[in-house]
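Mods, move this if it's the wrong board.
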Amino acid sequence: MNGASLFGGCAIRRDLPRVLRIATGLICILIALSRNFLGVHTPQDILVGTGTGVLVMWLTFRLLIWIGNHPEKDIQVACIGIAISVAVALFAAVKPYPADYDAAGNLLVDGMKMANDTFKGVGWCAGFLLGWILERRIVRFSTDIPMMARFTRLVTGLLSYYALSLILLPLLKNGIPGAAGTVASCFLQMFYVAFLFPWCVTRMEKSAGQDWGPGQAADNEV
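Not the wrong board. Structure tokens:
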């Protein structure tokens, strides 16, 4: 589903170059086939996961177009998304997970692990939606900047993201046990990507005299 969401989502975007769309589409197919080849998923898993991932990206793409035409509706969309996330978390928490064993007595499916994966998604979704609203209304992050500034952002973003993921989030998860720790750590992870980093990097650029407003990249390069 992750591969289908990322690469399949790029493949269905008509605004991207055709070569890139074909390449990402092939990558999506190869990822799906590799899961079956390695024996970690059944063909049914692959079809459902790939189909769901592409469908979610298509629906998200259409939703963003609708938001572009109705920008005043962004808070309502975020609230609905967060409400759905909370409902999914509650469902995963109370749903019974019957144990299923093979003939040798080995556990085939760990229901609590599946529930924990759901809690991760809930944290990521809520963190993104809240960060998305704040970024739209406070930061207005722009990528219309010179190439060197993009590279600096890329390096800074990757280093800070992995520092957050490898150091701070494990400490947070250990300090908050159970599903709450999973939701909190994943929420912070996505909230950092969607809002905190864009806010921090634009503040640092302004302090350094680099105020990259929309359309200013071309002027600065000239």
